[in-house]
Amino acid sequence: MDAYSGPDGLAIFLSGGASNLDPSASLGGAISSQLVKGMHPIYTTPVEALIIEDATPENGEGTGTITIDSDGNATYTPPGGSAGTAVAVSAGSRKVLAGSDETKAVRVYRASGLTWFGTAEFELVDALTGVLSMSNVDDTDRQAGETHYRGIFLKALEAVQDVLAWITTGGQSTWSLASETPVAGAIQEIEDDETAPAAVSWVNATSRATAIALGHFALNDTLGLWLRRVFPAAGTVATEEEVVLHLEFKGQ
After folding, report:
1. Residues 63 and 15 in one domain
2. How many Cα neighbours within 13 Å face the side chain of 215?
3. Do 148 and 244 share a structural domain?
4. Looking at the domain assignment, is residue 3 inside a domain?
5. Residue 2: inside a domain, yes or no?
6. pLDDT by residue (tens digit) across 4-49?
7. What pLDDT was estimated at residue 238?
8. Same domain, 170 and 247
9. Which CATH number goes with the domain that contains 178?
């Protein structure tokens, strides 16, 4: 399928202005040029012309392969999954390759003038962009409880509809979401990650049934999405909390 379509149709970007690359500074303002990637590839057996630009979080961590036949068609097999449909990728173009489960997909670019044949093998690992990790909680805050915030942007790379968002976590913190419509391309900017954004409506979106409904997006539409993490007073010491931001949508 074409790049920026299907599972690639709605992307997450940091806020904090076009030049901001720091997740901890994603505190509102204008959209950043920094895409929040789902997974990152580490090549073990590369194909010269193949560049994996992004991978959906649904792939999970593990070994993936892309096999390119003599006709230039590329087939993707995600970690622990089955191969999808072969896709023709012309030199200098981008395509989305999916496994048999189309949510497990990668966006690839074929560089011109280089070898485009063979089987590429790579390890997909958590990109750790940090937008969901928030600030660390020191012992004083652990005892008293603490609330932190992040502001991100959703951007439609194709027209999408019926967008839902929710967060699941295996940790002790509670999470909420709120949307904000950009004005002149920007959302409000908060002073620090302990300052609440003003005049937004929080939704305890912890499952698909309680998801925040974000409506329809035309091509290149953006929407601000605020995340709130509440660490409970007298919480336990934990080295890690797994947090997953879910986005569901349909192409038009």
Report:
1. no
2. 11
3. yes
4. no
5. no
6. 677 888 999 999 999 998 889 999 999 999 888 778 899 999 999 9
7. 66
8. yes
9. 2.60.40
What CA–CA distance (Å, rounded) separates 252 from 161? 7
Q: Which amino acid is at 205?
A: A
pTM of the model: 0.79
Dihedral angle computed from the Cα positions of residues 213, 223, 204 and 6, in that order, rounded to the nearest 10 degrees: 60
* Burial label, 5 (beta-carbon count in 10 A; 0-12, 13-18, 19+): middle
Q: Give residues with Cβ within 8 angstroms of 35, minimum separation 6.
A: 11, 12, 13, 54
* Residues shown for the chain: 252
| One domain for residues 92 and 46 | yes
Identify the domain containing residue 47 by its residue range. 39-126
